[in-house]
Amino acid sequence: MELALQLAARGQGHVEPNPMVGCVVARGAEVVGLGWHRRYGGPHAEVEALRTAGPLAQGATLYVTLEPCCHQGKTPPCTQAILQSGVRRVVVALEDPFPAVRGSGVKQLREAGLEVSLGLLQEEARRLLAPYLKRVLTGRPWVIAKWASTWDGKLATHRGHSRWISNEASRQVVHRLRGRVDAIVVGSGTVLADDPQLTVRPPGPRTPLRVVLDSRGRTPPQARLVQTAQEVPTLIATTEQTPFDHRRLWEQAGCQVLVLPGADYQQRWDQLLEELGRRGATNVLVEGGARVLGQLLAAGAVDEVHLFLAAKLLGGQAPSPQSLDLPGPDTIQQTLHLESPQVQVLQGDVYLQARVRRD
């Protein structure tokens, strides 16, 4: 099952909104078949593993990280392939909460006479599949907050200059992260200060939707995000405060415009994430700047954090996600707690990543 989980992770960025799944077929200690879900719409992990096992699947045990599907989707049911293979035993890490499966795959295999075990390395599978599970269970995508700051927590100078705080090695990691998500979110302040492209260089497995949060219509028509909207999908999430003529200019340039009716940032974040979930987004990367990140943290909407600490100090009244006049917790016990932090040093930058603990 550990090997199956390693195989499943290879599908990251390629299979969403489907789940990452890995599969191993074994006869005792001998591995005879390996497979993983390689791309959306392609063969599922069980089918790949059984294909490589061939006749050796007869009487073997199949280990799979997620409950086999039992319904016709873009591919035939995996339970059908398992039953036809002659496998005698199936070991499943995690039940699939997807409504068309949710226990039915295991039930179908058991009713056909196969021995089925459920729960081996369940927590490891749950961690791997956390973004998929969140989207299926809540309708919202997994939210990754990313920022680069100096050691004293500043995202830019007091004049808003931020290019570049992090080094080239850190920026390469960011591009790899961008290349596996469904959407990248920034605020209009970042557009005005940096005029970013928010593209993936070199291209990754996904082309993320570029999302600008702009409640007052500050994004200029000449911004690179607007000018390239015909080539790269771009959504501007705004409010009724933005004049209709300005919204029409964005649309004429090729931007999608979403008017959020929420009265405050909390409601607008809820509405945006629900909309992205409806569009099938599994992973969303929020890159800031300070106001957007501050709102996101205050809303408790962060699932995962990626922080790049450059070996620099700015001092002064420079912006940071913590510098906003937003309500925060009253006690340390009420803060967002991060779990299983990972730390790397990238040519002098310190790269930290962790998930928010949900008790």
Describe the structure.
With 359 residues, the protein is an alpha/beta fold. The chain contains twelve helices and 14 strands. The strands form two sheets. It has a nine-stranded mixed β-sheet, sandwiched between helices. It has a five-stranded mixed β-sheet with strand order 2-1-3-4-5. A hairpin with a 2-residue loop joins strand 1 and strand 2 (30-36). It is elongated, with a radius of gyration of 23 Å.
Rg over CA atoms: 23 Å
Helicity range of the residues? 25-40%
Backbone structural class: alpha/beta
Anisotropy-based shape = elongated
User: What is the number of helices?
Assistant: 12
Report how far apart the termini are: 26 Å
In the predicted model, the low-confidence regions spanning at least 5 consecutive residues are none
Strand content: 15-25%
Overall mean pLDDT stands at 90
Give, in spatial order, the strands making up the sheet with the most strands: 10-9-8-7-11-6-12-14-13
| Helix and strand run | HEEHEHEHEHHEHEHEHEHEHEHEEE
Tell me the total number of β-strands. 14
Largest beta-sheet characterization: 9 strands, mixed
